[in-house]
Amino acid sequence: MKLFEQSQTLNYSWDVVTTANWIKYPNEVSTHVLSVDILDRSVDAVTGVLRTERLICCKQSAPSILRTIGIPIPEVAWFREVSYLDPKTREYTATSVNLTMRNIMVVKETCVYKEMRERMEEVKVMAKKVEDKFDELKKEVVERPGLLASLSSRGFFFGSGSGSGNGSGNGSDAPSIQVVASSNDETLSQPQPTHSTQSTSMMKPSASTTSFASFFSRSSSSSDLTAEHELEPQSNLTEFIQTAEFHAQVGISSVKRMMEDAAASRFQANAAKGLKGLESVILRVLEEAKQLDG
């Protein structure tokens, strides 16, 4: 006895795959399948499982040398297929066995079509990795002394003030960016000159934290830097962590949403069309069953 097994991923919805499996033969491309006849089809009244029994006729693909040496091999082969479709668990199992030349060899094939539920587990694993990475970053910020001062020397200032008053008298027209957020404020200020009173707003994800970072891309004097550094270190650190946590949570939510959308788009493509085809088949089976009962 020999056992062959393989697994493939079909980038279509379960409804489309199962419906196509019933109507794919015969066709002008796969000419080896000559005919497919439905011998029996029924729906279990309790479980709702659809059972289908089919008789399939195919061209015999045995090597011609066998006929040359006198082994009687017919030109066609017959196969019996029994399949079960469970709409609740969304699993389709089809088992086929050869009826031709059973005295020489018995070939049994089982195909199982089911949804890839583990995809959602991948989404959860990815989200957990992002959260763990953020925790590592937050821990590193707390444990590394002088990190805030190093960032400040590069133009990043972490304070509760808006920053528009610091350096406003130096005549600089360079842009400044300030993130402003609260549970009741749904606007995010865009880059604007420090001397301008106009602003453009856009929607942003809501957040519960009320103080965030301000970035000033401008030429600051030494007195400006000194004034910024005079803020309480603990206050700076707290607000920096709050800022990082806010943006990390926004990033985690975005990753989850993008992966969920991608999974839905990939594994539920043409779902409506497939479901409609499945329903039509079941309705036809029920109608045939009523006629037989009558």
From TrEMBL:
Any Pfam family hit: PRELI
Protein biosynthesis listed as a keyword: no
Coiled-coil spans in chain: 113-140
InterPro entries: PRELI/MSF1_dom, Slowmo/Ups
Domain of life: Eukaryota
Segments forming domain PRELI/MSF1: 1-179
Coiled coil recorded as keyword: yes
Feature: compositional bias, Polar residues: 183-203
Keywords linked to the UniProt accession: Coiled coil
Transmembrane segments: none
GO cellular component: mitochondrial intermembrane space
Region called Disordered, residue ranges: 183-205
Identification of the protein by name: MSF1-domain-containing protein
